[in-house]
Amino acid sequence: MAEREQKKRTTSESDKSTAESSELTATRNEELSSELDELLDEIDEVLETNAEEFVKNYVQKGGE
Amino acid sequence: MALRRIYGTETEYGIIHHGVKDSNPISASSFLINAYLSKTSDPGVGPNSPRVGWDFIDESPDIDIRGFAPIGSLPPEIEPNLVNAVLVNGSRYYVDHAHPELSTPECLDPLSLLKWDRAGDEILINSMSAANEALPEGEEIIIYKNNSDGKGNSYGCHENYLISRETPFGRIVQHATTHFITRQIFTGAGKVGSEAVGEKRMEVPFQLTQRADFFEEEVGLETTLKRPIINTRDEPHADPLKYRRLHVIVGDANLCEVATFLKLGTTGILMAMIEDDFLDNRLKIAEPVYALREVSRDISLEAPIRLEDGKTATALSLQWEIFERSDKYINEFGFENVGGEIALKVMDYWEKVLSALSSNTDQLFGVLDWVTKKKIIDSYADRHNLGVDDYKLSALDLQYHDLRPEMSLFSRISAEKLVSSQEVAVAIENPPAETRAYFRGKCLQKWPENVIIANWDSIVFDIGDQNLHRVPMMEPLRGSAQHVGDLIDNCETVIELIESISERSNN
After folding, report:
1. Which of B156, B406, B413 is nearest residue A63 as measured by Cβ atoms?
2. Does B371 touch chain A (CB under 8 A)?
C-alpha cells in the first residue's frame, strides 16, 4: 500500500474536487430532500404527542 | 513498532420506565437484563442453564508469563445485588449506576468492533421486547442510545485501546487531547441546547456533541465528576508490564456506523503514531477544556482554536493535519502496522468525510449523527415555523436515539451501512475469532454448566472435582480461534479441556 500517494489539500485542489463531485452531489441532494420530505410527512405520527411533557420527563441519573 | 491493537467499547444506555409511580432506573435496568437472559435461547444464558456472572476478583499484577494456563482454585466472588452477566458473544451485560451497560468483547480492528457494537444495540432492542412482554399491561421500558438527558445528567460511551506500556504517558496526553477535541466534528451525536454550568440552555440552540458540556479537566482519574479529557484509569485487564489500556470517556455514542467506525479507526491509527513517536509538537492546543466546548458549539466549523505556539487553526484543519500525518505514517510504516486493509478503509472514509465537511456538509446526512439530526430538526422547524426553543425540537433530539424500531427517527433514514444485518446477527451469537474473547464465548457456548464465573482476563471452571479451576488469560491476543479453536472443538468434556490446558502449560 506504499503507493498511496501524498495529497496536498490546497484551496484550488479542494475546489477542483468539489467541481468534479458536483454532479454526484446534486443527485445525492435530490435523494436527500425526497427522503427528508417523506420523513417529515410521517414524523408527526411517531413524535410524542405532548412534546413538553415528554422532554421534561426524560430524566436520567448520571452514570459512568 | 506499534502494537497489534485491541479495541472495545462500553455503552451506558438511557432508560425510561413508563406506567409506574416512582420508577427506579436501577430496578428497571435489572428487569431489562434479566428479561433478556431469561428469554434468550443462548445455551449460556437460557432459562434451563445456570447464569454465568461476572468475576470481580482482580488478577494479581504479577506477570503471568505463561499467558494462558490454569492455576489452583480461588473462591469466586459475586456482586450480590446487581445483574452482571457474561454473554456467549464475549460481551459483559450489566447494571452500572442507574443504566444498563454493555461492554463489547475485545476486537482486533475497528470494523470488527463496529459489528459487536451494533450487536450490543440489537441485544438492547431484544431486551426491550423481552422486558415489555413480561411487564404488566400499561408499563413499558424504553431504551435510548444517547449520552445526556438535556438536564445536566450524562452517561458515557467509553472506548478502550490497548497500548504499549513503554509509550510515555505524557506523549499520549498531548496528541490524544488534540485528536479528541477536533474529532468531534465527525464523532458528535448532536445536541439541542447547552448543559454547561452557568449557561442558559438555549444560548446554544444546537451543538455537535452530547458530551462536551461535561468536561472540566485536562487529565484525571474521575469519570463522574470533574470529568477529564484524558482519563488516567490504569487497569489494562492484561499483562500490566506490557500493556496499558487507554480508557477514553470523552466520546459520544453513535448510531451512524461511519461515525463509530471513524471514531475508533482514526484513534487507533493515532495510537500507532504515538507509539512510534511519529508526531511533532506543532498541533498542541493551548486551552483544551475551553477548546473542547468551543469546537462542539461551532456548527460553522470555522472557529479558530488557539495553539500553544501562538498560532490558531480550525478543528477541521487540525483534522486534515492529523489525516496527512497518518497518510505519511502509513506510507512509511505500511498498512499492516495499523490493521491492514481495514486501515485503508478508515483512511478512505476519513478523507471523504473531511472533504464533505470542507465543502457540502449535507452530503453527510446518514453518515454522521450530528449532521443527520441537525438536518431533521432544521427541516422540521422550517416546515412548522418553530422557534429554536420549541419543545418539539428537543423531543426530536431525544427520539433520534430511541431504540424502539417503530419510534426511532434514526431507523427511518437510509443511513450508510458498513456491516450487514447478517454480520450483526452472527455477532449477537458468537465472539470475535481474533482475541481471547473467542475462548470466553466458545466455553460459554459449549460448557455453560461448568463456567462458574468469568471476566476479561480469566474464567473459572467447575469440572466436578474438589477445586475450582481458574484459567487466566492475561494475553488478549491468545485464546483466539487460531490458538484454541482446535482445542475447543476436539474436547468433548470440560475435564478434557482443563487437562489439555494443564498439559500445554506444563510443556
Report:
1. B156
2. no
pLDDT in tens, B182-220: 999 999 999 999 999 989 999 999 999 999 999 999 998
Cβ–Cβ below 8 Å for B395 and A17:
no
Residues in chain B within 8 Å Cβ distance of A18: 359-360
Active centre residues of B (catalytic): 96
- For residue B412, the chain A residues in CB contact (below 8 A) are 39, 42, 46
Of A39, A47, A64, the CB nearest to B249: A64
**Longest CA–CA separation in chain B, Å:** 75
Q: What is d(CA B81, CA B31) in angstroms, rounded to the nearest whole number?
A: 12
The dihedral of CA B348, B351, B352, B354: what is its sign? Answer: positive
Question: What is d(CA B329, CA B279) in angstroms, rounded to the nearest whole number?
Answer: 9
The domain segmentation of chain B, as residue ranges, is 7-45+87-426
- Residue A26 contacts B where some CB pair is shorter than 8 Å: no
Q: Which pLDDT belongs to residue B410?
A: 97
Q: Does B392 touch chain A (CB under 8 A)?
A: yes
* Strands of the sheet with B451-455, listed across from one edge: B243-248, B157-164, B7-12, B99-103, B92-96, B84-86, B53-54, B451-455, B458-462, B468-472
DSSP characters for A1-64? -TTPPP----HHHHHHHHHHTHHHHHHHHHHHHHHHHHHHHHHHHHS-SSHHHHHHH-------
So what CATH class is B7-45+87-426? alpha beta
Distance from the B318 Cα atom to the nearest Cα atom in chain A, whole angstroms: 13
Interchain CB contact of B27 with A (< 8 Å): no
Structure ipTM:
0.89
Q: Using alpha carbons, select from B369, B183, B206 the residue that is nearest to residue B298.
A: B206
CB contact under 8 A, B224 and A46: no
Q: Does A19 touch chain B (CB under 8 A)?
A: no
Mean pLDDT across B97-111? 96
pLDDT tens readout for residues B27-80: 999 999 999 999 885 544 444 444 788 887 753 333 222 333 333 333 333 344
Is the pLDDT score of B90 beyond 70? Answer: yes
| pLDDT tens, position by position, B405-441 | 999 999 999 999 999 999 999 999 999 999 999 999 9
**Burial of B373 (C-beta count, 10 Å sphere; 0-12/13-18/19+):** buried
**How far is B350 from chain A, CA to nearest CA, in Å?**
14
